[in-house]
Write a structure and sequence with these properties.
The protein is an alpha/beta fold. The protein contains 18 helices and 17 strands.
Length: 507
């Protein structure tokens, strides 16, 4: 018999003071569900197991996972373990308990292991691994990016010569089709199987489309400057209806790079929502400059049911924005935020900024944050220093920032390719070390002034997740929540999922 298990870990913040308390994410991992469905389509009886990091945290859950694995593979002739590395792959790869489980399964049963995610695993030489961190050597193949067009070939032990690959850790790394004319995979709609233990507290993920017409220099998505493939209205209606009617789910994360860069996305989603017998709630990413140019999108966001949005603002300085090919304009951004505050008052507005952009300055950054705080244009912020990664050998996914930092006003002062994979740099007004110091200064000051000292960098998807778990229902009062209570709600949700999964598949 052909059998498979997919292990994944939904995004979870696991470090930092607030993150330790809030880091329970109930947004289910769509890629893992699509891989599991691909396995089913190819004749594998498949179990999808999520929250793998939480399974490994308690001995009784480790034993439950072991029981499921042994029971499932006990009579298989062709077994496969799929391991998602998109989120937290360092923790997963280095976890002794998971290593031991997979080692035992491979030793006792005819099982191959495939790992995959959006990014390639860090290249680490064999000698750098200890006995406790040997999982990379238990993996037969890595798949990088959207790989469902090539994964079935490997799954069925076919000829992989039409794909690009390299070897690392004695594993094959499959990362791209050689034939560029093959259409990429369509937007994801998570398959909903009763065996996956969905419930009303979950946040499910949808893609409105694949592709992005923009070309931001710091972005490493492979879909830049590309035409968008749209999710059909029928697919949206079917998914949103089934999620609610079968499991009571009404909270959804839109994982598009940008939800509003083309009109068809909101138009399709709005058409679908109007056909539902309930009001769903959404969060996602959007461009502020599109909202100022197309103000009707703000009305659409309100009717669709957006409750939180992530805005990649980066900078309010026009010259600095133009240099990174994000020509949004500070005045346009601020005007869009004012319109959102006035017209969608129950929308949690979350903005990200980059500290250390060429042509920016500490004074201009401070003035921008002062204006945002004084006018309460954002509920909270994500503030980070400019990071210039060292491209991996043969990496086709690196950002233009990483490939040619000198084109954007940066001089690399230390090559980080052999250790941290982050470059040290200097530009016209600061260094990488100085940008880290300024990041911490602005991060602390801004969150405190906005009233979110206990919820620093509390994102739009964390807000929706907490709503789904039973937290505050209005963004203006989100800062008054008890972080420990939210953490406990998340823990309870996760443990209920784990126990129900053990009961279904191991009992």
């Amino acid at each position: 018999m052909k059998k498979a298990i997919v292990l994944s870990a939904p995004a979870a913040l696991t470090s930092g003071g607030h993150a330790t308390r809030l880091g329970k994410n109930t947004a289910r991992a769509p890629g893992a569900h699509m891989v599991a469905e691909c396995m089913r389509d190819n004749g594998y009886e498949t179990i999808n197991i999520e929250y793998i990091n939480d399974w490994l945290a308690k001995p009784e859950f480790v034993s439950g996972l072991t029981l499921i694995m042994e029971k499932h593979f006990s009579d298989c002739t062709d077994g496969v373990i799929g391991l998602s590395l998109t989120i937290g792959h360092h923790a997963v790869l280095g976890d002794t308990r998971l290593v031991n489980i997979i080692e035992a399964v491979r030793r006792n049963y005819n099982v191959r292991v495939a790992a995959g995610g959006l990014y390639r695993p860090l290249p680490v030489k064999r000698k750098e691994y200890t006995a406790e961190t040997q999982l990379p050597y238990l993996i037969d193949a890595y798949f990088i990016g959207r790989s469902l067009t090539m994964f079935p070939t490997w799954l069925n032990k076919g000829d992989m010569s039409e794909h690009y690959y390299e070897t690392d850790h004695n594993n094959s790394i499959w990362y791209k089709l050689k034939n560029p004319d093959i259409i990429p995979e369509p937007p994801i709609v998570m398959p909903l199987h009763d065996s996956d233990s969905f419930n009303a507290r979950d946040v499910l993920t949808i893609e409105l489309g694949v592709g992005c017409k923009f070309n931001c220099s710091f972005c490493n998505t492979p879909f830049k400057k590309s035409k968008t493939q749209f999710q059909s209205v029928d697919n949206l209606v079917e998914f949103l209806s089934e999620a609610h009617s079968k499991y009571g789910v009404k909270h959804f994360n839109l994982s598009d790079e940008t939800t509003n860069e083309v009109d068809e996305k909101y138009e399709n989603l709005l058409t679908a929502v109007r056909q539902l017998d309930y009001q769903p709630e959404f969060t996602g990413y959007a461009r502020l400059d599109m909202l100022s140019a197309k103000r009707y999108q703000i009305e659409q966001m309100a009717e669709i049911g957006f409750k939180g949005v992530f805005f990649g603002i980066e900078t309010l300085d026009n010259k600095a924005g133009k240099n990174i090919r994000k020509i949004t304009g500070g005045a346009k951004n601020l005007e869009s935020l004012r319109l959102l505050k006035e017209n969608v008052p129950d929308l949690y507005r979350f903005g990200s900024f980059m500290i250390g952009l060429t042509y920016d300055s500490e004074e201009k950054i401070q003035a921008g944050f002062d204006y945002i705080v004084e006018n309460q244009l954002l509920h909270n912020t994500y503030i980070n220093q400019v990071g210039i990664g060292a491209p991996y050998p043969g990496d086709t996914w690196a950002s233009d920032f990483s490939k040619n930092p000198e084109n954007f006003g940066y001089t690399v002062t230390r090559d980080g390719s052999n250790d941290t994979h982050m470059q040290e740099w200097t530009n016209d007004w600061c260094t990488s070390d100085e940008s880290v110091i300024l990041k911490e200064k602005f991060r602390t000051e801004t969150s405190t002034r906005l009233g979110f000292a206990n919820f620093m960098e509390y994102t739009n998807w964390e807000y929706l997740k907490d709503k789904a778990l039973g937290g505050q229902t209005h963004p203006d009062t989100a800062k008054d929540q008890d972080p420990d209570r939210l953490y406990q709600l998340g823990m309870m949700h996760t443990e209920n999922y784990i126990r129900s999964t053990i009961l279904k598949h191991g009992g």
